[in-house]
Amino acid sequence: MFSFFKKKPPAPDLPPPTPAAPSPPAPAVPVTPVAAAVAESPPAATPVPAPTRRYGATSTFVAPPVPAFGTELIAETAERLGNDADSKSSWMARLKAGLSKTSSNLSLLFVGARIDEDLYEELEAALLMSDAGMDATDYLLTELRRKVKEDKLVDAAAVKAALKVLMTDMLRPLVKPLELGRHQPLVMMIAGVNGAGKTTTIGKLAKHMQKYEQSVLLAAGDTFRAAAREQLMVWGQRNNVTVIAQESGDPAAVAFDAVQSGKARKMDVVMVDTAGRLPTQLHLMEELKKIKRVIGKGMDGAPHEVLLVIDGNTGQNALAQVKAFDDALQLTGLVITKLDGTAKGGVLAAIARTRPIPVYFIGVGEKIEDLQPFSADEFVEALLG
Q1: Which of 173, 197, 303, 340 could be 189's S-S partner, Cβ–Cβ 3.0 to 4.6 Å?
Q2: Disordered: where is this region (predicted)?
């Protein structure tokens, strides 16, 4: 969920707007992102050479900056799409389908079940198979036994309801809105292993942010993977946002360039893509640390958000990734992708018990609307029904 809402001044290189009666800026208020289908992609703009930066990156601007959205348009869009019951039910249907592998195993346990030791053993096996991990599994079973005894639960439906409450309470510390507008620009560094979906996630996040008057600049800092720069440029053209890139070279230089450009152009958000790497590749992890240090040289206090994108199909390995990247970069948030039917989902319980870093978004597919803010209540409802 985004929490930001204000009138943004036009970008410096756009023609001056038509004079209008002055009005006070709207106060920052919490706004829930909407699950909306993407409009037709705008045509790609002609690349414009970027100024030379002192850090040494020769970058390219692709597509013009996003014009400011009017406050009335944003409110109207949010009312039409964000409050649409059909949109909400559609998202829940996709989330349930994405978590069906675990949901089917857990839900069937309570059909006509007796509350005995066999049920607890089967529940333990199902939780472990869902990648919840031993710590989270032991906690849930211990608390569930206590709840059943204290409340004298004898009905399987009541025990299932108690488990839903326990799981929701466990995951609730992971719920936190991504707050925009705290800095100008808000600098976000995106990391993750190869194939986790970093670049695609960046494109989706940019589209979401545009709906709330956020001008976005992207930095193609993945200079290692073939076609990574071109992939991000395609997203830039789809969303009509600026992409800063270079043919090859130091990704830290690209990141520095992007931060400097974002400050000069008074952008709201700068997102820096980085090369995918395994946490065991120590020399590449050191490169990530360098990028973070250089971003800090470009703007004091930056990056303000360090996000790790995790493939939801990686199971307990996802927990190892969270620990390694957090130790190296001090993560501020997570994005879980590819909860598309083969993922088990239980790893969020393991993360909540071991390294409770906020999960800003979860993704269940390739479409823009398939990336939504994480809700503990919705997630557990999809798991247990």
Answers
A1: 303
A2: 1-30
* Residue 200 is assigned to a ligand binding site: no
273 labeled part of a ligand binding site: yes
Residue 270 has pLDDT above 50, yes or no: yes
Check the annotation: does 192 bind a ligand. yes
pLDDT of amino acid 248: 66
Region 206-217: what's the mean pLDDT? Answer: 90
Question: In degrees rounded to 5, what are phi and psi of residue 59?
Answer: -110, 170
- Report pLDDT digits (tens) over 326-350: 999 999 999 999 887 676 788 999 9
97 class by beta-carbon count within 10 Å (0-12 exposed, 13-18 middle, 19+ buried): middle
Residue 174 contacts residue 376 (beta carbons within 8 Å): yes
Q: What is the CA radius of gyration of the chain?
A: 22
Three-state DSSP class for residue 80: helix
Q: What residue ranges define each of the domains in the chain, with the CATH number in brackets?
A: 91-173 (1.20.120.140), 179-380 (3.40.50.300)
> Which ranges in the chain belong to alpha helices (H)?
71-77, 85-98, 100-108, 117-129, 133-151, 156-171, 198-210, 228-239, 251-264, 282-298, 317-329, 347-354, 376-384
- State pLDDT tens for residues 213-254: 899 999 988 866 656 677 778 877 887 888 888 776 788 999
171 contacts 349 by C-beta, under 8 angstroms: yes
Instruction: Find out whether 296 is annotated in a ligand binding site.
Output: no
Burial of 317 (0-12, 13-18, 19+ CB in 10 A): middle
Structure tokens at 227: 């076609």
Q: Residue 240, annotated ligand binder?
A: no
Any known ligand binding at 77? no
